[in-house]
Amino acid sequence: MTIEQMREFVILAEERNYLVAADMLYSTQTTLSRHIMAMEKELGFPLFNRSTKRIELTQDGSRFLVYARRAMKLQDDYLAEIEWAKRSMSEALTVGYNALVTFYHFTEKLTSFMMDMPKIPIKIVEDETELLIKAVLNGSCDIAFIQEDPFHPVEGLDKLYIASDTLVAVLPAGHRLSGCESLQLSQLQHEKFAIGFEDKTPSSVFVEACRHAGFEPHIGRNGLVGPALFSWIGSSGCVGLEWLSPALNHQNERTAIINVKPTIRSYTTVIYKSRRLSDTGRQLIEYFSSESQARRDEK
Question: pLDDT per residue over 75-96, tens digit each?
Answer without folding.
Answer: 888 887 777 666 555 567 899 9
